[in-house]
Amino acid sequence: GAQHPRASAEGEQPAAATESEPPKPAVADPLPNSAPGPIYDVVDVSEQGMDASEYFRRANKTNDPIGAIRDYDRAIKLKPDFADAFVNRGNRYQDTTWYERAIADYNYAIKLKPEDPEAVYNRGRAYVELEKHEQAIADFDRTIKLNPDYPTAFYNRGKSYAALGKHEQAVADYDQAIKPEPGFKQAIDSRLNSLLALDKQGE
User: Fold this and answer.
1) Helical segments of 17-51, H only
2) pLDDT tens digit string along 27-43?
3) Is the pLDDT of residue 95 over 50?
4) pLDDT for 101-142, tens place per residue?
5) Which of 119, 81, 84 is nearest to 102 (CA)?
6) Alpha-carbon distance 70 to 27, whole Å?
7) Could you say which of 18, 52, 88, 200 would form a disulfide bridge with 78 (CB–CB 3.0 to 4.6 Å)?
8) What burial class does residue 203 get, using C-beta atoms within 10 Å of its C-beta: 0-12 exposed, 13-18 middle, 19+ buried?
């Protein structure tokens, strides 16, 4: 298919279009040369005369991740600065384990809405899946700075600290996750595992 400008790993703006060519948004496959899976061309957006918000809502409702991704493609083609569509498309990429593509979408969303913690948090989750824990911790730090009441950000940062063997920091983060949600079982179990690891370190 046609080559489209795409969000880079650093979240740069797409390349400028020439005067003779209408601007093209970043599309469903922002990393076609390095990410696994099929490459999608943006499909026709004239279907049923729907606008970007209608494609977005339909994508949010479907259980079919590929169908959702293609509807987010349509929404973004119609509204290239649709930050929430980039976030949600990134989430669907993450659901299908296409983490590099997810990160590229989160980068673009963060460029559009730097004060929104959702894209930063979800990029951190993708870094955890790729075992890039230093980058994940940096994103969870930023998420918590943007929204201090974010138990899952504390929990996931704790997971990354534990993966790096920093169990004291992990326990502190699990405590922060459990405080507002005393029934947060994953955080409770992970906290116990880190406490056991600290006991072994002290033997």
Assistant:
1) none
2) 444 444 333 333 444 55
3) yes
4) 999 999 999 999 999 999 999 999 999 999 999 999 999 999
5) 119
6) 9
7) 52
8) exposed
- Comparing C-alpha atoms, which of 90, 33, 112, 83 is closest to residue 75? 83
140 to 21, 91, 125, 198: CA distances (angstroms)? 39, 16, 9, 23
First-to-last CA distance in the chain? 60
At 18, list the tokens. Answer: 């020439």
Residue that is written with structure tokens 């987010």 in the block: 72
Place of tokens 């955080």: 187
Distance of alpha carbon 102 from alpha carbon 107, whole angstroms: 9
Query: Residue 131: left (phi > 0), alpha (psi -120 to 50), or beta?
Result: left
Q: Which token pair is 104?
A: 């590229």
Contacts of 49 (CB under 8 A, 6+ apart): none
Give CA–CA dist 16/30, Å, rounded: 16
The contacts of residue 19 (CB under 8 Å, 6+ apart) are none
Nearest in space to 48 (alpha carbons), one of 18, 3, 19, 78? 78
Tell the burial category of 60 from Cβ atoms under 10 Å away from its Cβ (0-12, 13-18, 19+). Answer: middle
How far is the C-alpha of 76 from the C-alpha of 78, rounded, in Å? 5
Rounded CA separation 21/14 (Å): 14
Q: Cβ distance 152 to 136 under 8 Å? A: no
